[in-house]
UniProtKB/TrEMBL annotation:
<dbReference type="Pfam" id="PF13735">
    <property type="entry name" value="tRNA_NucTran2_2"/>
</dbReference>
<keyword id="KW-0547">Nucleotide-binding</keyword>
<feature type="binding site">
    <location>
        <position position="30"/>
    </location>
    <ligand>
        <name>ATP</name>
    </ligand>
</feature>
<feature type="domain" description="CCA-adding enzyme C-terminal">
    <location>
        <begin position="262"/>
        <end position="396"/>
    </location>
</feature>
<feature type="domain" description="tRNA nucleotidyltransferase/poly(A) polymerase RNA and SrmB- binding">
    <location>
        <begin position="172"/>
        <end position="227"/>
    </location>
</feature>
<dbReference type="InterPro" id="IPR002646">
    <property type="entry name" value="PolA_pol_head_dom"/>
</dbReference>
<keyword id="KW-0694">RNA-binding</keyword>
<feature type="domain" description="Poly A polymerase head">
    <location>
        <begin position="25"/>
        <end position="145"/>
    </location>
</feature>
<dbReference type="Pfam" id="PF12627">
    <property type="entry name" value="PolyA_pol_RNAbd"/>
</dbReference>
<dbReference type="InterPro" id="IPR032810">
    <property type="entry name" value="CCA-adding_enz_C"/>
</dbReference>
<feature type="binding site">
    <location>
        <position position="166"/>
    </location>
    <ligand>
        <name>ATP</name>
    </ligand>
</feature>
<feature type="binding site">
    <location>
        <position position="157"/>
    </location>
    <ligand>
        <name>ATP</name>
    </ligand>
</feature>
<feature type="binding site">
    <location>
        <position position="163"/>
    </location>
    <ligand>
        <name>ATP</name>
    </ligand>
</feature>
<dbReference type="InterPro" id="IPR023068">
    <property type="entry name" value="CCA-adding_enz_firmicutes"/>
</dbReference>
<feature type="binding site">
    <location>
        <position position="33"/>
    </location>
    <ligand>
        <name>CTP</name>
    </ligand>
</feature>
<comment type="function">
    <text>Catalyzes the addition and repair of the essential 3'-terminal CCA sequence in tRNAs without using a nucleic acid template. Adds these three nucleotides in the order of C, C, and A to the tRNA nucleotide-73, using CTP and ATP as substrates and producing inorganic pyrophosphate. tRNA 3'-terminal CCA addition is required both for tRNA processing and repair. Also involved in tRNA surveillance by mediating tandem CCA addition to generate a CCACCA at the 3' terminus of unstable tRNAs. While stable tRNAs receive only 3'-terminal CCA, unstable tRNAs are marked with CCACCA and rapidly degraded.</text>
</comment>
<dbReference type="GO" id="GO:0004810">
    <property type="term" value="F:CCA tRNA nucleotidyltransferase activity"/>
</dbReference>
Amino acid sequence: MTNDKTLFLDALPVMQQLTDHGYEAYFVGGSVRDFLMGRPINDIDITTNATPDEIEALFVHTIPVGKEHGTINVVWNGINYEITTFRTEGVYLDHRRPSHVSFVRDLYQDVERRDFTINAIAMDQHFNVLDYFEGQQDINNQLIRTVGDPHARFEEDALRILRGLRFQAQLGFTIDTQTYNAMAERAADISHLAIERIMVELEKLLNGAHVIKTFTTLADLHIWDHIVYFKDMPMKHIQISSPVTLPQFLAIVMYQSTQSVKTKQLKRSKDEIKHAERLLRAVQEVLTLTSKQALQQFVYDYGLALCNEILAIQPLLQENNIPQPSALLFNGQTITETWNTLSITNRQQLAIDGKMLISAFDKKAGPWLKDALRLAECAVVQQQIANDKQEIIEWVRANVKIS
Ligand code: ATP
Ligand code: MG
């Protein structure tokens, strides 16, 4: 495995600017962990003893994203670096937020407040590693272990329970026994967390390469019982053995549920929820396809991307006992061919619109119009008639009740 230093080398001028002015600066967190593991690195986090004001004074382009907590973003060469002042955290309130943070001048205190040993490794600009909590050993042993007493750390911030599970799903590591037992004991505290924070970790977890293992752990720890929405869903009947996106997961959960539980509680974007619901509808409808015309209509209505998404999650649907369409009718080739030979791919391409129908029939707009347009659209899509204005009008005259 190669350890790619490029992103760290890009960040060196930022580090140097800090160290040239007498401050300490270290790479820390996920980037160091992933680098040491030879995994691709996401964003680079830097920790320093410079205060937020001191950081702002040293760089031209800064954004005070979380200044009161010590975080300033520095933009350098178009790249965003999150720089955080060494800090400790005061007592925790409600298992989710510290009463205050205090800036400190010592790296040790900063890494001591971090969640897991593998996330508490610091690295200086010469690639020297400072590892106070045997994080490298845990990387080698593939262990997820809290920094310090797991009970206390989870009691402070219950999100760490989900984060630990998320790292298990992403890295395939084992959760250290004491850490695991503390997770089990403190799982109920998850209910105190903001759902937005839960969902960030959950989305990463579901997408993790090792989600198969973690999904079982979630059930063992009764995690779902403490999360809004999911606690009302039949989570025991759901299996996830390969990475899924959040909308795909939600579609499967909704499929299995006999009652409608408000997805609003999850506080995700409208687009995302809509996508999940659309996928659910498509999964239900795809089963009813029996003819070439029906396939044309389906591919037109849902689009090629969604059809391919259904194909991509077939194993997942199967393991959840969700009936599948015949592979003869619905496969990569048939949907692509169908899409490529559609006479129109959206309503705008239809040779007729509402205004034309109104004038052709000399009728006021009314419910008939919507019906006529949809029926004409289907007739064109299913190639019963050509996409031709006159032909469509004649077809509507003969086939649609205009009242
Ligand atoms: P990713 O690669 O997904 O960004 P990450 O480990 O960098 O993973 P972040 O959420 O970006 O995770 O957090 C950066 C670092 O901040 C973590 O590595 C950890 O050291 C610390 N950290 C984040 N959240 C917590 C928390 N709830 N409690 C303690 N430390 C935390
Ligand atoms: Mg990170």
